[in-house]
Amino acid sequence: MRHMDDAAFLDHVTGRLAALPHVETVALGGSRAQGTHHAGSDWDLAVHYRGPFDPQDLRDVGWPGEVSPIGGWGGGIYNGGAWLEIDGRRTDVHYRDLDVLAREIAEARAGRVHIEHLLFHLAGIPTYVLLAEVAVSRVLHGSLPAVEYPDALRAAARSAWSNRAALTFDYAASAYAARGRLTQCAGLVAQAAVQTGHAVLAARGEWVTNEKTILARAGLTDVDGIVDAMTADPDTLRAAVEEARAMCAETMAMC
């Protein structure tokens, strides 16, 4: 049951998070920072720290929920976080290392693209997602560097993602469609479509923080119909792969 209005809730949570050792910045992200939320949307917050941040300090605040260790979400740039319930609200707190952010800003400006595996993400995540988070976030305490979408990153990310999509389509056709392996083939077509979505939005210089709306933003939702019509017949699967490939290529060409 909630007791605070939204403004009081944010003030309360921000104060507690900002008081944690080594935390320099607290930021609101996700749909609530972008104004696209609904009444039941989660609250996504990030603590940006410098130095030996210890999640036990967050656990000691006493909010119910799960607090992961550093690296508890698989390592890499998504180095952990907490799923909490605070004043009746589902609240996520992500750990963000300011030194890692500085490194990724430099990498993005140099046009170097790195992609990591992350659970629940079809195509994985580019490490420049840290810049995307900063670009769309609302700083509640402290400050964050200004970020832009570098031209070098636009070109490099478009190339990296479109190359991955091409290889994924190739493998879907040769390894799975030809053998009538429906589930694997459909999975790779979906993955290639998301990879193409990343490429399209990179070419436009539009930040992506997750895959949830990427197909709609890139104009690729018609892939849904292709996947829906798939059957285990090899000829049907091969035709579906090529139809999806052509759709993605046409969308890329318009960029």
Sequence stretches where pLDDT stays below 50 over 5 or more residues: none
What does the average pLDDT come to? 95
**Morphology:** elongated
Query: Which bin fits the share of residues in helices?
Result: 40-55%
Distance between the termini: 48 Å
CATH topology grouping of the largest domain = Beta Polymerase, domain 2
Structural class given helices, strands, pairing?
A: alpha+beta
Total beta strand runs: 8
Return the string of H and E elements: HEHEHEEEHEEHEHHHHH
The largest beta-sheet arranges its strands as: 3-4-5-2-1-8
Architecture per CATH nomenclature, i.e. the level-2 architecture of the largest domain = 2-Layer Sandwich
Number of domains: 2
Protein model, in words:
This protein has 255 residues and is α+β, with helices and mostly antiparallel strands. The protein has two domains: 6-141, Beta Polymerase, domain 2 (2-Layer Sandwich), CATH 3.30.460; 151-253, no CATH class. Helix content is 48%, strand content 16%. It is built from ten helices and eight strands. The chain has helices at residues 6-18, 30-34, 55-59, 98-109, 129-136, 151-176, 182-204, 214-218, 223-228, 234-253; strands spanning 23-29, 43-49, 65-67, 81-86, 89-97, 115-116, 125-126, 138-141. Strands 3-4-5-2-1-8 form a six-stranded mixed sheet, sandwiched between helices. β6 (115-116) and β7 (125-126) form a beta hairpin. α7 packs parallel to α10 (234-253). The longest helix has 26 residues, at 151-176.
